[in-house]
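Entry for the shared binder. Reason: the reviewer on the internal report wants the predicted structure included alongside the sequence.
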Amino acid sequence: MSNSNRIVACLFVLSVAGTAWTVSPAPYVPREPGFHAFMIHDIGVADFNGDGNLDIFTTNCFSPMNLVAGDGHGGFRQVRTELGLELTPGIPGFGAWEAPPAMDKPGLYVYIDKRYFCVQSYKASDLAPMRGSVRTICRENITEVRGAEVVVERRLESSKLVSRTIAFSCQSDGLVRFRPEPHLIDPMTVELDESIPLDKVFMGPDRVPPPSHRFDIFYQDPHSMAWADINADGRPDVFIGRGAMLSESELKPRIDELKDRLLLGTGTGFDDTIDTSGIHKNGCANRKSCWVDANGDGLLDLFYTGARGVDSALYIRKQMTPPVFEERAAAFGVDRLPHGGFCWRDFDRDGQMDLAASGDGQLAVFWGGTPSNSRMSCAPFAKIDVAPFEVVAGDFNRDGLADLLYVFPHHEPSLMLFANRGKRAFEPVDMSAIGLPTAGMTACWCDFDNDGLQDLVVIPGDLYRQTVLGHFEATGLLAGLFRDRPTPPEHAWVSCFDMDNNGTRDVLATVRLSGVSVEPPGVVPDPYSCELALLENTLADNHWLEVNLVGPAGNRPAVGARVAVQIGPMLQTQEVGENESSENSQGHYRLYFGLGKAARADLVEVTWPDGTRKSLSNVDADHVLSIAY
């Protein structure tokens, strides 16, 4: 067990004591997530290999993404290399890491220590001098040279950018360490002297050999991943949005060199079809992406927002196979949205997808258009100072309508809740009056005890249990999570999902810690470390039912479908995507229903996106139910 997990376990014992709601033993048990948390930009849940078990993924600007496959019993295994989704193709695991690699063999070690590019020779007297060069357009800030010689050549390129070639010559034990500024995500070309045997070159934390003596490193800043089977072949596909950090003015010329990725699953990996898809970068520094049937034609479309003032994009599907899209955001009236959080749902249950977002200092819902007029109507309902990072939709008061919880980190209040009153009206809720906090960096709804009432997880904060409809109490069960760290959290993520298919919602929580200030101003902190907790929920007092929908060919995850579960007088309603809680990504489509003491559900009714319905009666509890269109 890691040190952070040991701390979490101890805090549970302390935090449960003295709370109004007690349980013994503590229901949350720390588990290993199958990867190490470092330099995370987003984290989420999806069944990305299509085996029916929920998996975990992360996105990172210049640190290797994580793709850990769940085994359905709470175990996870890194499969990034198997799926061909390395940050640097041909060099598994290469990217920014929190420390230099272990050095136990003579040779040349090439690695990135936090935000510093390092070339280091180790006991290489038989190979010295070891020569090579690194070419980059970043400003080089050489911070350490020992046992080596360095020459920097600068050149004005036709693009008006200045390139730098950093030539090095390392002796037996030498080090060249420099910091690319302002970002590591610009392309670099490394060239090693032909006299250096490739099996004596060790790349990154995995210490793998490079593919050749000359190779490129271009991370392209992947920020978002939107998972769905978009071509109805039974294999998950993924759109990867890139470039959110490249929107700074001095790096804008680099955006044109970037490409997002549209990866279609093959069963053993992915084929990138972005060049034939009609999806064009158009200078968009992509930050948040999702699949949605925006025009109600039965085909999934792609929506995303960019960072720092660039236009949002809505790509309408024009062809099923191969997938072809056409950009129509302006026609729908959703082309000028900020890079903050958004959420697509059918809020008024009219069969058209609506968009909760923000803009012009207001929270607003863009109500879905009609088959004859696709333009969405913007209806502001609250004034704000900053754009929200997250928009969380869920029916917390069990009236069948999705309510809206907005998260504004580093703002007071940082949590704002609006109840959906029907007739396209949202009403502010006094969170303190119902026992909920107004501070936190991330939050998600989760019926953690399967009593049929939605509870709220807030990080940093606690788990707030809904004791009776419309009233919450702090449990203390998560009050100690990520507390008393050397530096306070500056960002947080949380997902509640069933990692072991036993009916209880487990917690995946991550924080990014504040770092030491560095130059130039405005770049990310250094060090840039994260802490992660994967907590197994061991409660087993109540019955449950989980639902996976398999939609029609153009919308396999059934985005926009609604499931109602009736147990006696109690009716619960959820819409596909309601349990999605990654900040920038998408893929958690499973629905969760707590049945309390009922051993079966009287009725399970699916309303598909096209309005047709499917009903099942007397459904046994305590299993994952798959319902096909």
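Summary line for the report: Confidence is low (pLDDT under 50) at residues 1-20, 517-525.
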